[in-house]
Each structure stands twice: as C-alpha cells, then as structure tokens.
Amino acid sequence: MIDFLPTAIPALLNGTGVTLQYTLLALLMGAIIGLPLALVRVYGRQRLGRIADVYGNFFRGTPLMIQLFMVYYGLPQLGVTFPQSIAALLTLGLNSSAYQAEYFRGALQSIGSGQMTAARAIGMSQWKAIRYIILPQALRLVLPTWSNEAVSMIKYTAVIFLIAVPDLMGQAKIIASRFFAPIETYLLVAGFYLILVFVATQLLRAVERKYQLPGLV
Amino acid sequence: MVPLDKIIFLFEYLLQGLGVTIGATLIALALGFALGTSTAVIRVYGNRFASTLAAAYSTIVRAVPVVVIIFILFLVIARFIDLSPFLSGALELGFARGAYQSEIFRGALLSVPPGQMKAARAIGLSRLKAIRFIIMPQALRLAIPAWSNEATLVLKDSTLVYVIGVPEILRQAQYVSARTLQPFLAYGAAAAIYLVITFLVTRVLHMVERRNRLML
Amino acid sequence: MRDLPIVRIENVHKSFGSVEVLKGISFAVQPQEVVVLIGPSGTGKSTLLQCINLLTRPTQGKIWLEDQEITAPGADVDKVRQRIGMVFQEFNLFNHLTALGNVMVGLTKVQSLKPAEARKKALWELERVGLSAHADKYPAQLSGGQKQRVGIARALGMDPHVMLFDEPTSALDPELTGEVLAVMQKLAREGMTMIVVSHEMGFAREVANRIIFMEDGDIVEQGPPQQLFTQPQQERTRRFLRRLTDFASSE
C-alpha cells in the first residue's frame, strides 16, 4: 500500500496529459465545424439551416455516451470502423460542434442589425462585413459561454475510458483494480479534475479580461 | 431488412431501459431540487460558515465529472448500506446535479428584486417566512427556463449510471446489440428514443414555462 | 456646373408585403444641391433613402447615380455604395473599433488603402467634424452627438459623391443636435450634395436648396424653403405645416 501514491500519481498524470489532448482537440474540432455552421444558420439559405438543425438536434438531444457507442460499436455494422482514439475524438468533436454552433449563433444574432447595415452602406460585401465587423464583436460576446464549454469539455472527456482510451479515467481504472483501492483512486482523480478545472477557469478568465472592450458587454 | 422479431425484441428491452432511465431521472431531479434549493438559500441568506460550506459543495462537485462522483459515492455507500445500483445511482446523480441546480436557484434568488425582502419584513414577516412565502415563489418562477434546461441535462446524464451496471437504455441497447448482432440498429434506436423523450420533455416544460412566467 | 444630376429617381415603388410604402416617386438631385425631405412619420421617407443606396430594393422603378443605372441587374452594388455616404438615426457605429477605427475600416478593407494612408485620411475626416481629440475613444465612451459626428466622418471617409442623412438628429437629446447640424451645414457650404430626411425645420429653412414634402408614399409638393414654408401650394402641405406650428405654439 505504501507504493500506492508513488505509482498512482505518475500514471494519473499520464492520463491527465491524454485527457488534455482530447479536450483541446475536441474543442478545436468543435469550433472549426461549429462556427461555419452558425454562420450558415444566420446568413445562409433556409434549406441549409434546416439540415444544420437536424445535426444540432441529434448531437444535443442524445447523451454523449450513446453517440460514442454509436460511433465506435455501431458504425462498423455499416462498414465504417474507427480506432478508439479517432472514435472518441470524432464523437467529442462533433458533439461539441453542435453546442458551439448554438453559442456562436446566439452571439451572431444578438448583434444589432444596424451593424451589418452600416457595413454594407460603406460598400462592404456581406462576407467582408461578417469578417471585419460582425465576427470581431460576436467572438468577444461569445467568450464567456465558450469558456464554459471549454472547461466543461475537460469533464465530458471522462466517458471515453469506456472505449478503452487511456485518459485520466482509463488510468484510474487500472490503478484502482491493481491496488484494490477504488475509493482512494477516484478521490485522487476527483482532485486531479478539480485542479484542471480551476486552472482552466483562471486561464480563460484572463483571456476574457484581455479582450474586453469598453461598451462591448 | 431486419426481421420483425428482432425489432420487437429490441423495443421490448429498450423500453424497459427507458422505464429505468425515467425513474432514475425523476429521483435524481427530486434530490437535486431539494439539495439545490436548500443550498441556494443557505448561500444567499445563511451565515458565513454554512454559506461557505454550501458554496464548497457547489464549486467542488461541479468541477468533477458526474461519472467520478457516481463512482465515489457508489463505492462509499456500498460499504455501509445495501442499495440497489438503480437507487444508488439515481441518488448519486441527484447529488452531482444538485450542485448545478444550486447555481440556478442561487441566480434566481439574486434576481428577485431586493425590495421584495424589504417589503416582506416591513409587514412583519420573519426572515424565514419571507423567504418561504415571498422570495422563493418568485425565485422558482424565475428559475423555470434554466431548470427546464437542467432537467434535459439530467435526463441525458442518466446514462452515466450505466457504469455501475444499472439496466438503463444504453445497458439494454448493449445487450440487444450483442444478441441481435445489430449494434447500429440497437444504439441508433436508443438514440432515437432519447430524441423523442427530450423533445417531449422540452415541449412540456415550455408550456409550463409560458404559463408560469414571472414578469418583473 | 454639370447638367447631369447626381441622383435621379424614376417612378420608384416599394411594397412590403401588401403595403405599398412608395407609390411612384420621381425626382432628381443636382450636384451640390441640398434636398430636405419632410413629412409625417411612416410615409416612406427613410425607405426612399434606403432605396437610393439599395439597402432596400425598389419593387419597381429605376435609380441613377450620375451616369450609372444602379437598379440594373448587373450593377456592382458594393461599388455603388462607396460613392454614396449614409448617416443613420441610430448611428450604427462599429462597437469594437475606436472612432478612428470606424473611419479607417472602410478605407483599409473596402478601398484597400495602406494603413498609414488610411490613418491620415481618417484623422483628417475626424478633424473635419471636430473630433480629432477623440480618435482613440470607443463608441461607448462618446456622447450621442459625438457618435453621430463619427458616423458622418465614416461616411465622408469614402469620398462619396452624395451624402444621405436618415433623421440624423432624431435619436439625440435636444442639446446635442446643434453640433451635428453645424457639421451638416458646414458640409453643405463646402458643396456636398446632400439628401436629408429630418424634422429639423430650422435647419431645412437655413440650409436646404429644396424641400420635398412627402405624405402617404407620394411627393405632394416641392420647392425652395422660402416658398414652401411661407406659401405652400397644396392643402396637405398647409395642413402638415400647421400641425408643426400648432405643436410648437402649444408648448
């Protein structure tokens, strides 16, 4: 029992590294898909918007775990097989993109129509107006909500251990069974998540402060 | 196409799972509500010590993934009481999500205009009675939109009790998938059931919200 | 003086659904002319202005900007708008940019000027409206009158051939309208062609070359301010002007 901590901590740290990787990549994927999706919803044709709706409803209306099982266990039946890492990343990323699309959409829509009108009035094309006038404001507006999603992503990754990804939870499972000390292990894990979440929250708050502008609430 | 008897088998099992899911969700929501409202009241109106404890509950529990909370509590509870995984899981889910409800109700309590408490005390109500009869009813109405959202989140998070072996929808889907060798169908059907349920729940809660909207 | 009008509007109709807001408007604005549109609220004056720079598309009719028919199907609308400046009732300043940034953004992103050149020009325009000291302030830090003057500078920065003012002082507190009207008067004196929708009769009387009175989507009467205000030809014009003075005298 004496070598519990010396063994557990490095292993859990290892797992933490993996957790962070998935967190960041999934967030990135979510933004890369989510922002264009939101732009289409707000500025694009109605028909495209309806497809985006279906996509959003599926990923936001079903649990992440079911999506994960569908991707990893279900898709092979249709001939599409992914290794654990890709399945996990894909599920987390697509799931996040649906939520991020909603947050971006909200921010875009809350910007008064006068901004677009004024931008068009000085001769900007719709695309230039979106790029130089709307987006800079929308991205600042969405920052608090987005930060929330970013920090939450750390917690969402906690289910990917179910398809054998060696993240923090995955390592915990191994350690817990090896030392027959599940409660201690998971309490440690809880501690790790606490620290991760705290650090992430502080970091993002600093970013928010940096990009704050007077009058841009 | 898939043979009819397989489909019937599928739905039989999944609907059983649905029952478990809904049951666990309701228990969790109830516990979460109780914890959420009481800790919120303590945080807003309580003394410094109790308030800090309540805040700690909310902050710490929300920083940890729900599945970890479920694991820890399940193992701890199992040492002392013999509860079914279903009940244990439902209570753990409630404890975990209660921390989020605490935030919701705290926000709602703070949005009730301060004049309300002043007026309540002015007509002679004690602090506790003022909270109970004047502040809380308003806070609850203000909280409905956020709470509706939370309800759907609890519904979706209820699959997490899968990890402690509870036969909710996902666990059932897995069983069906193994027996029918149709994993996409099994998990897809589970997803479809969730879509229908979340849609219905959202609709119902919207109606409730509209009827009880509090205009400030 | 050239004989080509800067703006020519021919039989412009605009309907929103089943409601016809503009019922066949035709007029022309000569270079350096200052035209003020007056009339009861909701009679299509703002809509007409928004048709001129095609922010709203007429349901029928043609509009010319100098020698180009801008309502023609192939017209490059974004380019057309660079020659028309618009000032809005609600200012519509870009909130994430400073006053200087607001004037510069069109120069750098639409006209592709180099940042240094754009900055010079933008400062010059801000100087023109009397706000060079506030160049680095954000819109939220400016008063209403200052915001509107930045709006004017932003429009001027594009070197427009005509300036459209859509009720520029209606959203301002009374003590702030003066600074904006002063800038507008200065522009008029400098020879800018202006089409203004406004309720500011004093300004109209002093600065306008021509007043156009619109009601219910039609031009009822137009003429020089001395004539229209003192000897209106149409009964409807008389009624409108009477309502204005009645209100003023009942205070």
Present the secondary structure layout.
The complex is a heterotrimer of chains A (217), B (216) and C (251).
Chain A (H helix, E strand, L loop, with lengths): L3 H40 L2 H16 L2 H11 L9 H27 L2 H9 L4 H31 L11 H12 L2 H30 L6
Helix pairs in contact in A: 1-2, 1-4, 1-6, 1-7, 1-8, 2-4, 3-4, 4-6, 5-6, 6-8, 7-8
Chain B lengths: L3 H42 L2 H16 L2 H15 L4 H27 L2 H9 L4 H31 L11 H12 L2 H30 L4
Chain C lengths: L6 E10 L2 E11 L4 E5 L6 H8 L7 E6 L2 E2 L7 H6 L1 E4 L11 H11 L5 H14 L15 H14 L4 E5 L7 H16 L3 E5 L3 H7 L2 E6 L2 E6 L1 H6 L4 H15 L2
Parallel strand pairs in C: 3-8, 3-9, 6-7, 7-8
Antiparallel strand pairs in C: 1-2, 1-4, 4-5, 9-10
Helix pairs in contact in C: 3-4, 3-5, 4-5, 5-6
Number of helices of chain A: 8
Which spans of chain C of ≥5 residues are poorly predicted at pLDDT below 50? none
Biggest protein-protein interface?
A-B, 33 and 37 residues
How much helical structure, as a percent, in the residues of chain C?
25-40%
Secondary-structure element order of chain A, N to C: HHHHHHHH
Question: How many separate helices of chain C?
Answer: 9
As a whole number of angstroms, the C-alpha radius of gyration of chain A is 21 Å
Q: In which range does the helix fraction of chain A lie?
A: over 70%
| Whole-number total of structural domains of chain A | 1
Total beta strand runs of chain A: 0
At the fold tier of CATH, the topology name of chain A is MetI-like fold
SSE order of chain C: EEEHEEHEHHHEHEHEEHH
| N-end to C-end Cα span of chain C | 45 Å
| Main CATH class of chain A | Mainly Alpha
CATH architecture of chain A: Orthogonal Bundle
List keywords for this structure.
heterotrimer; A: 217 residues; mainly alpha; MetI-like fold; 8 helices; 81% helix; flat; B: 216 residues; 84% helix; 0% strand
Structure description:
The complex is a heterotrimer of chains A (217), B (216) and C (251). Chain A is mainly α and 217 residues long. Chain A is built from 8 helices and no strands. Chain A has one domain (2-211): MetI-like fold (Orthogonal Bundle), CATH 1.10.3720.10. In chain A, 81% of the residues lie in helices and 0% in strands. The longest helix of chain A has 40 residues, at 4-43. The relative contact order of chain A is 0.15. Chain B is mainly α and 216 residues long. Chain B has a domain at 19-167: MetI-like fold. Chain B is built from 8 helices and no strands. Chain B has helices at residues 4-45, 48-63, 66-80, 85-111, 114-122, 127-157, 169-180, 183-212. In chain B, helix 1 packs antiparallel against helix 7 (169-180) and helix 3 (66-80) crosses helix 4. Chain B is elongated and about 70 Å long. With 251 residues, chain C is of the alpha/beta class. In chain C, strand 1 and strand 2 form a beta hairpin. The longest helix of chain C is centred in the C-terminal third of the chain and has 16 residues, at 174-189. The model of chain C has no long low-confidence stretch (mean pLDDT 92). Chain A binds chain C through residues 112, 114-115, 117-125, 128, 132-133, 136-137, 140, 213-216, and chain C through 53, 55, 78-82, 84-86, 88, 90-96, 105-106, 109-110, 138-141, 151, 154-155, 158.
